Amino acid sequence: MTDIVQLLVDEFTGFFGIRHWMEMFRSGDYQSLLTWKGLQSALSPLIPILLLIELVRGGLYRTFKVENYKMPFLIYIVNRFISRYLSIGAVAYCIGLFEGHGLLKADLTWYWFIYGYIVWELAHFVYHYLGHKVRLFWCLHSTHHAPEDMNLSVTYAHFFLEAPYADIIRTTICLLLGVTPPLLFLIMFIDGTWGAFIHVGENLLKDGRLGFLNKILLTPSHHRVHHAKNPLYMDTNFCNLLPIWDKAFGTLQQEEKELKIEYGISRQIRRGHFGDAYFGEFYALFIDIKRAPGLVNKFLYIIMPPGWSHTGDHKTAKVVRHTYLQQATGEPAAPVS
């Protein structure tokens, strides 16, 4: 019984990131706050506390719904037991394999930090773009898009293999382009914190545009658009903090005030159902592969975008968005591959 209680205490303190604070209070030594590692640990409770405030605020204003938070928390609990060390191992493996093969070496200076962040955003864009454009990768990423409400708990909703594959892609690109591990870890911390914050719900932040920052950064408004299944919003805003690559590749989409965001994925799923959110896309892919004629078509279902069909009747995000824009402008729809 004691072991179970201790496990629950460890999970609670781990989720809220308060172990470092507890150790400082116990010892009375706050010198660690003067180190970068100590500062990181001290800031780690930020997102869980914001989530708690979001929950309390939702309860006070009677907008809190259990089903909006149930599935992300179930996913978080499952992932805690399955993939605790997978992502760390993936990053360490890539560092050992590619660190010595970088085109250059970026130091911990302000100008190399800017360079490193631009490279990191490119690496994140590549991983995120592939997660939407390759059916197998979408099966991993779709769990994060399955919730039909936006709130801070969604940041914890991921398929357990997504983080390792994402970190392999991002770490490899960064290392080969000269971002050294110390600089990479600094960027990962900043980007991870911001990447969690942009999932903030309307209970806590009604207007996610953040004023003038909406023109400079990827804001919660941009990320709400990214999580939308509205045709106009599908497959947009792949960056995380700096929208430079979305601007460069034409995937930046602003939130339209008159268009209400509909969250979730285009496939009809059972609301709040853990199994459907976690494994549903794998099952749908299996059915498509099973029905497809010939090995080539079966393989294409794995690597082509979600919605691709061997019959030519494609329902990919590109096709759906193009058709919507054609209808919105009154122009005749042109064929889209």
Describe the overall structure.
The protein has about 325 residues and is an all-alpha fold. The protein has a domain at about 65-290. About 60% of the residues lie in helices and about 0% in strands. The chain contains 15 helices and no strands. The longest helix is centred in the middle third of the chain and has 24 residues, at about 110-135. The N and C termini lie far apart (about 60 Å). Residues about 335 have low confidence and may be disordered.
Provide keyphrases for this structure.
337 residues, mainly alpha, 15 helices, 0% strand, transmembrane helix, oxidoreductase, lipid metabolism, glyceryl-ether monooxygenase activity
Summed up, what is this model?
This protein is mostly helical and 337 residues long. It contains 15 helices and no strands.
Radius of gyration: 21 Å
Uncertain stretches of 5 or more adjacent residues: 333-337
User: Approximately how much beta-strand content do the residues carry?
Assistant: under 5%
Shape: globular
Q: What is the helix/strand order?
A: HHHHHHHHHHHHHHH
N-end to C-end Cα span: 60 Å
Average pLDDT, rounded to a whole number, is 86
> How many β-strand runs?
0
Largest sheet: none
